[in-house]
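Milestone M4 deliverable, item 7.
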Amino acid sequence: MQNVLIQVFGLLVAAVLFVWFFKRIGLPPILAYLATGVLAGSHGIGWMAQSHEMHFVAELGIVFLLFSLGLEFSLPRLMAMRNIVFGLGSLQVVVTSIVFMLILLLLEHSLLNSFTIASLMALSSTAVVVKLLKESGDLNQRRGQLAIGVLLFQDIAVVPLLIVYPLLAQSGSEEIVGALAFALTKGALVCILLFGIGKWILPKVFSEIALVRTDELFMLTTLLVALFAAGLTYLFGLSMALGAFLAGMMLGESHYRHQLEADIRPFRDILMGLFFVTVGMQLDVLYVLNSWYWIITVLIGLLLFKIAVLAIAAQVMGERKQDAVSAGIMLWQMGEFGFVLIALASQHLLISSEQASFLIAVGVLSMALTPYLIEKTPLILKKLGLLSHAGQYWQQPATSSPLYQNHVVICGFSRVGQTVARFLKPEAIEYVAVESNPILLQEAKAAGEPVIFGHVNQKDILKSAGVERARLVIITFTDFEQTQIVVDAIKQIAPKVKILVRMRDDTELETLKELGVTEVVPETLEASLMLVSHVLYMSGVPMTRIIRRVSKERRNRYKFLNGFFTGDKLDGEEASSDRLEYLHVIALPEHAYAVNQKISELKLEQRRVSVRALRRQDREIDAPSSQTILLAGDILVLQGKPRRVERVERFLLDGME
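Output delivered:
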């Protein structure tokens, strides 16, 4: 037991140091984990002994990775990608396998040996590619979808290969067709079973779990579901990763998708790191040094050929050359299932021990080089003449749902959050709310409100709400301890975003300001101001004096309200409230009277109202020119006295004087 603890401690120390060093020099963590494995394995210092249990635990990292990937792909989306999965995916696997097999036959390898090596080299690494796509944000780009579609077919193709290899080693290989048919039947049955469970049972289970409002229970249920699905497919002789993917895909349409992904992520990342450590432990450094020229030759051939096959096949199917080549660069390496197939083939003597070592070396090095090549993809495309400048590569629009941009994030969608949303909507200010009450969530969703399920103290949920692109975050609950955690999480993601906090009083005002909160709204102050307004009005004090005193009190308390009342000239009790100028925002719908007219043609200055600013497609225009032509969707900031602004708003919308 003591030796195991020392080994684990040493592994953690090495992993921390390598990840820190690799990040400091700009390299991805995957390479750090591979380097840790090389150092810890039997071919390095050798303090970690490989075991079946360690490999099994490491494989759970792939299970959780595929579960989180399934959350990104609902069944309708997968059906929409069927041409990529079963068209491009099958084309890539079949063509690559046949060509590699012919090359090996020309090099005088046996038929079985050639088929075995060619089929496992046709596969790519789901673990590496999906992790890099998630980190880069390319999962929703077309190039990312091409890569994911091909990887899904490759994961499905692993199943018949796991069946075929043992049968090829037996004399009765005529039983292959029957065995494959039986395996496919089992696969279809387990997929239908998982589909039924995921479609009709799991949403109800998570609804009940969410009602309890316990983070630990929700997380435990998430782990249980992922492992149950993986174990079910494993019992049927299929890939554990395939079962996890199907379970995630069934839950991808539920309201709990973001919270599920946030809960699974810590376990996924840790176990994925362990998986890459076990991969690195299989690399024999001395063997690589002795056979470096052959390994480099195969790596170059693998790189050029797999990119060419995928690029040509994708273009034949109508994809852009730029996306086709990008997907090829992502998928040129050997995959983690290749190591499983290498072990199986070695066990049944389909490949020699020297060939197994060679393939492991090629697989590890190809996986290690992939992050660097993906990072340099824009430069490669530019060299090939597919991009005029590298920046275009990152500026492509996503093909999935649009990202939240320049919006307001509402943390909590109870009465206060709903009130805020009700005022934002008429002003055409986009917002998204985060709520952890499942009943409230379902009611809001039914009403068409942009609400996601999750706990706002988790950074993954805040990222799902687009906090780093928001103009403002509003925290509507009053619990101080919880607010501190949320503010800290927000500041780690978006240090410059403005944060508005609701509190019962201002006793924690200074602490919240030090944490980076922009403004604190205490309920006691607002209640006092409204109460005293009614008292003064019922006591006969003129309304203008009440407005002046309340406005002064608010300006003294809230610095961001200073200057809001631009015409605050209420010098006497006889002053009319009509002398109070203010700013008002209106959005021009498609059929508004002012659309396609110049500001000068509307003659707003004769109505004593001015256009202070204009917002068009997230671009702010201060003091727009009188020659500016107004378009549908424009948001105008008008300044004037209340009655005049009201008349101008009717005029701009309906043309009524």
